[in-house]
Amino acid sequence: MSQRIDALICPRWAIPVEPEITVHEGLCLAVDKGRILKLLPRIDANQQFYPDVVYERPDHVLIPGLVNTHTHAAMALMRGLGEDLPLESWLKERIWPTEMRLVCPEFIDDGAQLAIMEMLRGGITCFADMYFYPERTAQIAVNSGIRMVAGMIAIEFPTPWSTDASDCISKGLAVHDTYKTQPLISTMFAPHAPYTVSDTTLTRIRQLADELDVPVQIHLHETAKEVEDALSKNGMRPLQRLKELGLLNPSLMAVHATQLTVDEITTLAQTGCSVVHCPRSNLKLSSGACPVADLISAGVNVALGTDSAAANNRLDLLAEMNTAALFGKFVAGDPTVLPASTMLELATLNGARALGLDKEIGSLLPGKSADAVCIEFKDPGTQPVLDPLSQLVYAAGRENVTDVWIAGEHLLENRTMTRMNEESVMQKAGRWAERMTVS
After folding, report:
1. Other C-beta atoms within 10 Å of 47: how many?
2. Sheet holding 216-220: strands in order across?
3. What is the pLDDT of residues 28-58, one digit of tens each?
4. Residue 250 main-chain phi, psi, to 5 deg
5. What's the rounded mean pLDDT across residues 160-184?
6. Full 3-state SS string of the chain
7. CA distance 397 to 374
8. Please, what's the largest Cα pairwise distance for the chain?
9. How many Å apart are CA 79 and CA 98, to the nearest integer?
């Protein structure tokens, strides 16, 4: 007798990522109560299951939901602000003054909605966020149905959200307590950067992270100037400073990491740290080149992030996969490194590993949460389909994403949002544009 289940998703191709990154044809994903039951041939699925709904996707590839391992979601409202500037000028002259003038709970709510809608439309089912008012973004995430890792940020100087780092930590712990029972929300500590966070604060964060068993994410070695300034001020490179403070361990995510020596790559591998690569942001701000191929060769877990829409202009992980592959081959001087299969792993399972969520998401294994995405290969830019995996990384774009499920809920159906009011979100963004341009 067949088992009644919630849904059967039937694409032409499926790439489960685990146990291996292989393209399968003619498999269906059986989903019930928000979890994956099986990925199995259509004939077997028809015999074993009686689904409430069948999603026929004959021109599509099914993949795990994409994991955006680093962003600042509400900054989507600053898209296009302070263009064509180096990082330090961009931050000090445009971003930080604008934040002090405009950032408030309403800004966070409206910016987070805009970012989440953009991410869902691009197949992103989980994002790790580092920004002010994390409690507001977390609530917007709950309302929209997306999976989120809320950053308990820390920065020493006053912000619209906090008076100092101690205040940040206190408010961050409140966020952790408030959302710890929400199934789609988890937390991480998110000290901004070594140059904005003191040794005292970093030491406290290390202790609290150990107690709460949560990861830590920090901007690290983002630019050559950051490293030079640290050497001048502390007599050591930022990575060495974090090592001496006990922060280098498997729970640490080093974001950007464009300035690494051979010895530092070895240190990251030996201590089990992850690196979050944000290629398009690094290129636009001319921050440097993360040595991705060398990191992977050394055994470092590398994930992908978009950074903010203010730095990158797109919260688009398909674009990040493409850029990471092309730029990484150029940096390594070797066209054979960073193949499409590696890029998909960086954008899914590796991100889940970095966030401590790999038992729950990142692949289409039975028992995991049904976070999945269908991408259509039907337009002229994705034909002919000789290699679906190559097509995914080198030809497809977010406009090809048709369907998104998170914990089994169909949040994007045939390119239509099922929970979010697109017109309302766009109207709010337009009103902020008017305020953003007022000097």
Report:
1. 10
2. 66-71, 124-129, 147-154, 185-191, 216-220, 252-256, 274-277, 301-304
3. 999 999 999 999 999 999 999 999 999 999 9
4. -60, -10
5. 97
6. CCEEEEEEEEEEEECCCCCCCCCEECEEEEEECCEEEEEEEHHHHHHHEEEEEEEEEEEEEEEECEEEEEECHHHHHHCCCCCCCCHHHHHHHHHHHHHHHHCCHHHHHHHHHHHHHHHHHCCEEEEEECCCCHHHHHHHHHHHCCEEEEEEEECCCCCCCCCCHHHHHHHHHHHHHHHCCCCCEEEEEEECCCCCCCHHHHHHHHHHHHHHCCCEEEEECCCHHHHHHHHHHHCCCHHHHHHHCCCCCCCEEEEECCCCCHHHHHHHHHHCCEEEECHHHHHHCCCCCCCHHHHHHHCCEEEECCCCHHHHCCCCHHHHHHHHHHHHHHHHCCCCCCCHHHHHHHHCHHHHHHCCCCCCCCCCCCCCECCEEEEECCCHHHCCCCCHHHHHHHCCCHHHEEEEEECCEEEEECCEECCCCHHHHHHHHHHHHHHHCCC
7. 12
8. 72
9. 12
Please answer whether residues 397 and 348 qualify as being in contact, where contact means their C-beta atoms are separated by less than 8 angstroms: no
Instruction: Look at the pTM and tell me if it is higher than 0.90.
Output: yes
Partners of 77 in the β-ladder = none
Report the chain's mean pLDDT, rounded to a whole number. 97
Query: Token pair of 302, please?
Result: 């590398």
Report the pLDDT value the prediction gives residue 439, as an integer from 0 to 100. Answer: 52
State how far the alpha carbon of 350 is from the alpha carbons of 67, 226, 320, 363, in Å.
9, 26, 14, 10
